[in-house]
Amino acid sequence: MKRREFIKNTAALSSVAFLPNQLSPFGNINTLRTAHIGVGGMGMEDLKSFASHDAVKIAALCDVDSRALKKAQEVFPEAKVYADYRKLLEEMSDQIDAVVVSTPDHTHAPASIMAMNMNKAVYCQKPLTHHVAEARAMRKLAEEKQLITQMGIQVHSFYDYQLATVLIQSGIIGKVKTVRAWSPKNWGFDGPAPQGSDPVPEHLDWNLWLGTSAKRPYKADVYHPGNWRKLMDYGCGTLGDMGVHIFDTPYNALQLDVPKTIKNQCRKPTDFGYPEHNIVTYKFPGTPYTAKSLKWIWYDGEGAPKMHKDLRLPNNEKLPDQGAMFMGEKGRLLLPHFMELPRLIIDGKYQKIEVSKYDKSGQLGSPTEDYGIEANKHYHQFVDACLGKGKCSAPFSYSARLTETILLGVIAGRFPNKTLHWDSEKAEFRESEANQYLDAEYRDF
Ligand SMILES: NC(=O)c1ccc[n+]([C@@H]2O[C@H](COP(=O)([O-])OP(=O)(O)OC[C@H]3O[C@@H](n4cnc5c(N)ncnc54)[C@H](O)[C@@H]3O)[C@@H](O)[C@H]2O)c1
């Protein structure tokens, strides 16, 4: 199934910024019954965080790897278990309220859209989708059906990220001209596609793992688990994996929409793995918090970031391993990723930040060094929203646009060193050869 028509239909939505999350359809319930699709890796962390909320009943578990399913079942023995999410959703439709999708990226949209069509609330891991067309489709569906939704960018609810947002919006460094962000992680692969095939292990349903993507022979350790991130058919490289977290605060704080131009400096495409090193430059139209236009630069891969005077720290201190630096008219704000407070730099020196001056009502709470406490906030916010208490802070109305932005940089990696021009209204690039990567054919499986 080709969904290019879907993007066209949803193109008009792209200019509507920050739509509010909708009221809960479950306002009168006090238990939220959840179904979890993908329970190995991050899926297990998601399960634990949801289970830590008193109102949650883990009703169903689904994984295409029976070893991951068994481990989860040991922790939640009362939950029903499935290998195929379609069967789970069909059979348990009236026994679940919300669906959590923690699979590899290429399955996020097919599973989420099926659940949303059944009017379920959806918590979907980041990046929201593998393709721009899917992000637009999910946003449109969530809005039409007024569903509670949240993308799994838990740092969005962390104290230090929220503080950075308040500081930037208060004008602590004036209007922002440039943001530089980096991660030295390498979720790319410069080698050739593997030849031949390996026997599919008994514990894995390879056809279900491939899902809507094209058929491909199984190779041990190349795809499952985790390594799919490096590969174009399933993941989104380091930018999709880490950029979506690290750019979330600049995106949110500066109230950006989608960019006008994107350029990725990287090696030539191989059609199999993402480049192991990327420098991606985005240009955005100005907003009330930026100069006339805003430049975002992303660096990834071993050794990132490439040094630049904007990134020099006082006393020649070493840069945090991952993070973002905001350059404003009056100074710079460094936001390490993650669980570290933002740092203000003016005239080459660190300046004290008097938080109470900026967070007058104390709504941010206080910093904690406990990752578990911080991470659970984002999940609990979703559960509470489903129970009619409060709103989600990263609903699809927000996170689909952030994801679209990130994915445009991923697509730019197919056209090294070329500036691509994005027309958000038409949902297409001026460079028509790039438009084929906005969508993908879905296989019947
Ligand atoms: N928010 C975060 O901090 C964070 C951290 C890590 C991963 N993630 C995200 O979580 C998702 C999963 O990443 P991971 O590292 O756990 O990957 P993984 O490969 O380690 O685990 C994915 C799990 O999903 C299962 N799975 C695959 N296809 C499935 C299908 N069709 N139906 C049901 N189960 C299926 C796999 O068997 C495996 O157990 C990704 O979207 C990733 O970006 C988020």
Highest-level CATH class of the domain at 4-154 and 374-395: Alpha Beta
Average predicted local confidence, pLDDT: 94
According to CATH, the fold-level topology of the domain at 4-154 and 374-395 is Rossmann fold
Poorly predicted spans? 4-23
What's the CATH H-level homologous superfamily of the domain at 4-154 and 374-395? NAD(P)-binding Rossmann-like Domain
> Bound small molecules, which ones?
nicotinamide-adenine-dinucleotide
The CATH architecture of the domain at 4-154 and 374-395 is 3-Layer(aba) Sandwich
- The helix/strand order is HEHEHEHEHEHEHEHHHEEEEEEEHHHEE
Shape: globular
Main structural class: alpha/beta
Specify the number of helices. Answer: 13
Approximate strand percentage: 15-25%
In total, the number of strands is: 16
Task: Output the keywords.
single chain, 445 residues, alpha/beta, Rossmann fold, ten-stranded mixed beta sheet, six-stranded parallel beta sheet, 13 helices, globular, binds nicotinamide-adenine-dinucleotide
Structure in words:
This protein has a domain at 4-154 and 374-395: Rossmann fold. With 445 residues, the protein is an alpha/beta fold. The chain has helices at residues 4-10, 41-51, 66-75, 85-92, 108-117, 132-145, 159-170, 206-210, 237-246, 248-253, 355-358, 371-386, 396-412, and strands spanning 32-37, 56-62, 80-82, 98-101, 121-125, 149-152, 176-183, 261-265, 278-285, 290-300, 323-328, 332-336, 343-346, 349-351, 420-423, 428-429. Strand 5 (121-125), helix 6 and strand 6 (149-152) form a beta-alpha-beta unit. Helix 1 crosses helix 6 (132-145), helix 5 runs parallel beside helix 6 and helix 9 packs antiparallel against helix 13 (396-412). The chain binds nicotinamide-adenine-dinucleotide. Nicotinamide-adenine-dinucleotide binds next to helix 2 and helix 8.
